[in-house]
Amino acid sequence: MRTCRTVAVLLLGSSLLIAWFADAQAQPASPTPVAALELDGAVDPFIARYLVDGIAEAGARGDRAVLLTIDTPGGLDSAMRTIVKAILGSPVPVICWTGPSGARAASAGMFVMLACPVNAMAPGTNIGAAHPVGVSGAIEQEKVTNDAAAFARSLAERTGRNAGWAERAVRESVSLSAEAAVDQDVADLLAGSAAELLGKVDGRTASTAAGPVTLRTDGAAVQPRRPGAGVAILHGLIDPNIAFVFFYLGLILIVIEVLHPGLSAPGVLGALLLVISVVAFGILPVQLGGLALLVASVVLFGIELKHPGIGLPLAGGLACLVVGGLLLFDPAVPGVRVSPWLLAGMAALLAGFFLLVVRAVVQARRLPAPAGVDALVGAVGVALGPLEPRGEVRVAHERWSAEAARGAIAAGTTVRVVGRKGLKLIVEPGPSLPRQPKGP
Asked: What does the DSSP 8-state code read for residue 220?
């Protein structure tokens, strides 16, 4: 019986193995996919690394092609050249598509489109405006422009496109609609969607680092590759609105730390926000005039905070905030600006803070002190925390804001009230309190 059971198990296992093998042979091999990548937003080192890795993985897998969807206002020249090198060195053809409708391949995005062996645009998109822009928003010096123009021309000549227009896009910052780009041999074809594009380019021959490749993309499975969480977060910070908010909040927190030294938390957080905003400003086309107006607005708000009720610094600060936000980024670069709604919201918030909160605090300070506060002069209490020189004390079974008359007072020290400033007690070290007798 034991031998029969063993033989039966072997026969059953062999039958299952043969059936699985026959089924695997009957099924067609899974089609080689098309890797889908996205260049969405500013061209920065984070998105460049994501694209380079994605193109390299597609080449290692032997994918049919890489579909790169583009919607960018431009970015760093160094990051753009990194992406272009990856495209030109890829053994897998890279198909660039500016889409969907409303997208653009501006500035650095134009160079990426010119580098792709096959490129397309959706109706309602545009390409161009590639004149180099400096940190101040001014046109860069002539040698930088000449270098960018030569690079654009070399890419266009390599891929058989309109080299003359590519150079004009750099020198004169001209742009083309999708239809005009196809007519002037800047883009290869129009495609309203990625699926339509893959169908239209099927059978075309594309140049790659490994030689000419015939595209077989019609009906191919598209395999998206998303950037990792770290890249997505860092790339998301390179946004005009976020950079503006971080820069302005950083300035405000630094001013708070200066006005109230010793808090440390506002200073540390403000410095961190300023560092992040400066990194973003290094990629975005910032104008120094806008930055100066934002700094001036914070200074004016600080004056209003130290001397409330004047009103003129508040009005000047609000005006500098709004105008500085509008002028912060170069208007020649499409799609890069601070939202007017964000500016209006911040201006309204700051105006409400000064007109309601600060005014209420000032009025409270002008009220007469409650009856009995003067009676606390001479009373003895305990410092609830260190007074360096401000802190809190417990006097007459109540917590009071206090300030040391001279020097610092450690927590737990017995203090004596020697005066007051409004509702704040002025204290100095006092005699030790007698110990309470222990119970039986």
From this structure: P
